[in-house]
Amino acid sequence: MARDGGAADARPQRTTRTLYSDQHLPVHDKTVRRRRAVLALLVVLSLILISASFGGSSSGGLHTMQAGFLDILSPIESGANKVLTPVHDLFNAVSDVFNAAGQRDKLRKEKGVLEQQLALAQAKARENADAAAILKLDSRDNLSADGPVTANVISGPPQIFINQLGIDAGSSAGIAVGDPAIGDGALVGTVTAVTADSAKVTLIDDASAPVAGMDGPSGETGLVKTDSGNASLLTFNFMRDATKVHVGDQIVTAGWQATAHASIFPPNIPIGTVTSVPSVVDPGAPITITPATDLGAIDSVQILTRLPH
Amino acid sequence: MGEQTHVGMRLGALGFIAVLVQVTVLSQLRILGGDADLSPLVVAAAGLLLGAVPGAVFGFCVGMFVDLAFAQTLGVSALIFCLVGYGAGRVRELRAPEAPVTPLALGAAATAIAAVGYVILEFLLGVEAPISMLLVRDIVVTVVLNSLIAVPVHSVVRRWLVPALPDDPRRRRRRRAYTTGGLSPLSRP
Fold first, then answer.
1. Could you read off the pLDDT of B159-182 as tens digits, one per residue?
2. Where are chain A's structural domains?
3. What is the pLDDT of residue B112?
4. Nearest Cα residue in chain A from B19
5. Is position B180 within any domain?
6. Looking at the domain A148-304, which fold is it?
């Protein structure tokens, strides 16, 4: 045992050589201890401050000190703020330039979405107005007895001289050729072709569809036809006494068949307003009528299905 | 006036101006949704130039000043900046602080440690702020912005502090010239 111990003592000890392992400098140890002690002191001080500040009441000493410090700092802060305002503004201006580009792109996208929504809302409003006009016409002229069928316009005039509209209701809804069509509170035209689920309405400004009309104030009757000189106007012809018709008079349906093939429209449906009459200067001029509804902007119509043909 | 007092006064002025600029200017400049934070950069630069103990003390003082100026829980920033200053000082003592990339890397690291440490401490103190991607984005933006200004800030702090340090080469040269009566004959053309 003693021999073993002696051999162990005789063997040279193997140590790892590091910078300080073989020479312990007391100054270095002191520096390390001091450094660690300072760090520990500061950390402990911070933790004490956190505990005191976090758990303390708002009227405590630390909060009072903080408030006092802010009172002292705020004038300095205010002064520095004023002095540094140009710098602040410069940075903000640069920042605004970058932000403005991003905002512009964002607003452009929003504008596109809003435009789509506006178009949709306008279309809905137009549909509502049409429906309201049809309802008003129904109640005014008591059209409910005539079997009105409401249909949406699905196609416009295919060519410039063919004034027809396509609608999304047909014979399955009771619509037949010759049925009158009204829309937007006024006379629109006549059904001229029918399939099971669609139909064609020839408008009143088509040359092939004269309408028996009546001057509202005087009761003079005549034929309403398209104006050969202006496709957007109608003319009022074949009256007994044309002098009774005046500018501004409302022309309505007369309620009788104009030709052998024309529809029988219910009476008193507005057709249009007289805009010109023959004068002394031009006694041969026609009586022109502006249609009561814009025939190019109709979204829905009502077909009267129970009238005798 | 002793050299330590001189350094202390310069450090005090540096901390005061840095926090004042932070309060009045930088905290109001939002860039890419975040803002630059001068305090960790100044503390890291001071620690890198002065060592661990002065860095820790300076960090503690700057942190206290920040807590007071922003009316925060006292001690939170002091604790974080104290550790940042100490860490920067240890980098000076253990690594090669003269490498050109050191201020940049140290500034980014100091900012990240300060920001994350602040979030963790506030979270531990029970501040009910949601940990969201917005917070992560703010931290990343602040680290990036601070990285961009880390080198100029370090340069300014160095210019401000080095003349007061005892091992300033310029001062050493001045002293030698004063004691020897002029420059070394070897340096003459």
1. 988 887 776 544 545 555 555 544
2. 148-304
3. 93
4. A77
5. no
6. Thrombin, subunit H (2.40.10)
